[in-house]
Amino acid sequence: MAREENLTTENDGDVGAFLDAVPDERRRADAWTLLPVMERATGEPPRLWGTSIVGFGRYHYRYASGREGDAAAAGFSPRRTSTTVYVPLGFDDLGDLLGRLGPHTTTVSCLHVRRLDAVDLGVLEELVRSSYARTVAHRWE
Question: Whole-angstrom Cα distance, residue 19 to residue 31?
Fold first, then answer.
């Protein structure tokens, strides 16, 4: 079986330059606000993953299919219509925090926030801290 390469890899890109280049003023401001929240929640410095994700920490995954690789243990991306916060293991056991967070939507492992000033940043930090701890402790084999 040919191994698929993960296109979203950690690199030496300049996180500050990436955030400064976010075209939408709200997304750019939200990204700069979220950066220290994520640093506190993970205890990790920010690193660029791929071309559009600011990641914190890393984990190695290996699936039964044989696919494996490395990914950010927590991260975010300022997207066109919202800021996406990555929650690798999804939202099981995070319902209470989601209920207290404020306006958001979720998909399998993504939290989408249109306006960071409309959510409780303390709750968001707690959610990221919990998600990060679960992700780095998870057995991926």
Answer: 7
**Residue at 80: amino acid letter:** R
Provide the angle, in degrees to the nearest 10, between the axes of the packed helices 121-137 and 25-42: 50
**Helix runs in the chain, H state only:** 15-20, 25-42, 95-101, 121-137
Classify domain 10-137 at the CATH class level: alpha beta
Where residue 66 falls (left for φ over 0; alpha for ψ -120 to 50; beta otherwise) is: left
Residues near 138 by beta carbon (within 8 Å), at least 6 away in sequence = 59, 89
pLDDT in tens, 97-128: 999 999 999 999 999 999 999 999 999 999 99
